[in-house]
Every structure is written in structure tokens, then in C-alpha cells.
Amino acid sequence: MTSRLLVVGLGRFGMALAESAQADGLEVIGVDNRMDPIDVIKDRIAHAVCLDATDLKALRGIEAKNCDIAVVAMGESFESSVLCVHALKELGIKQIHARAHDARQAKILAAIGATHVIEIEADYGRRLGHSLATSGD
Fold first, then answer.
1. Nearest-angstrom CA–CA distance, 114 and 93
2. What is the mean pLDDT of residues 38-43?
3. What's the Rg (C-alpha) of the chain?
4. Rounded distance, CA 33 to CA 114, Å?
5. Which of 68-72, 75-79, 117-121 has the highest mean pLDDT?
6. Residue-wise over 108-117: b if at least 16 C-beta within 10 A, else e?
7. Could you give the CA distance from residue 56 to residue 88 in angstroms, rounded to a whole number?
8. pLDDT tens per residue, range 93-113
9. Could you tell me if 109 and 98 are in contact, meaning their C-beta atoms sit under 8 angstroms apart?
10. For residue range 16-31, what is the model confidence (pLDDT) as tens digits?
11. Contacts from 19-22 at CB under 8 Å and sequence distance 24+?
């Protein structure tokens, strides 16, 4: 059975994540509250929906509870990320990954139910530093 992935927020990070996961065999549902990214990605993933992902009723409407994994990839509004993580937790999604801009946001997202917090710049910086230190070039 194919795993279902919900990606909330289709900016550069969310869109790249959704397309990559779909190409690697996951059934991806992409959600954004703006129609522009939905129009861009709608033919590249299984489902693309314009809605407010902080609204529990809207998430129920797309049957988000049937997703195995959710990634909250929103980058502009931390409050929206918090409300979305809380709604996904309330729906019973077991694996929730959430994007944070700093350690304080990461701590808050983990406290409300994110099972994994992504600090994109810090995570990539550590990975690149390790790669540069261990490469022979």
C-alpha cells in the first residue's frame, strides 16, 4: 500500500518536497491557502487543494486523517504553523514534521505535537559542513 503524505505550504521547500516524494512513490496531497502554487503543482502530484490548513473542518474535508505523514512546510506565519500542527495532531496523524526558523520555534512545535522539527538553514548548514570536512576535495 502506498503511503499518503500531506504537505502543507507549497513554497519552494514544500513544492520541492511534494514533487520529490511523489516521484519516489508516495501519494502526495499538497495544500496551500494561495491558488498560484496549486496551479503550478496540480499536475505533478496526486492532489493539490487550496484551503486554510489551520481550519480543522477544512482538513477533515480532504480526509487529512488518512495521511500517514504530514509536513507543515509553511514559512511565513509561525502562528499558522502552530495552529496547523495542533489541528493535525487533533486529527490523529501520527507523524508530523514541522518547519521552524529557530530553536525557540522548534521547541514550541515539538511541545504541541510535532514529532520531528526541521530547521532548514541550520540542518543544511550542519550537513554541508560535515560534507566539506569529510570530503577529500
1. 10
2. 97
3. 15
4. 21
5. 68-72
6. bbeeebbbeb
7. 8
8. 999 999 999 999 999 999 999
9. yes
10. 999 999 999 999 999 9
11. 19/44, 19/45, 22/46
Return mean pLDDT, the chain: 94
Cα–Cα distance, 9 to 81 (Å, whole number): 9
pTM of the model: 0.91
For the chain, the 3-state helix, strand and coil shares in percent, each to the nearest 5, are 50, 20, 30
- CATH number (2.40.50.100, 3.40.50.720, 3.30.365.10, 3.40.1000.70) of 4-134 reads 3.40.50.720
70: helix, coil or strand?
strand
Stretch 28-44: mean pLDDT: 97
Q: 64, 65, 31: which is closest to 49 by C-alpha?
A: 31
Q: What is the arrangement of strands in the sheet containing 47-50, beginning at the earlier edge strand? A: 47-50, 27-32, 4-8, 69-72, 95-99, 116-118
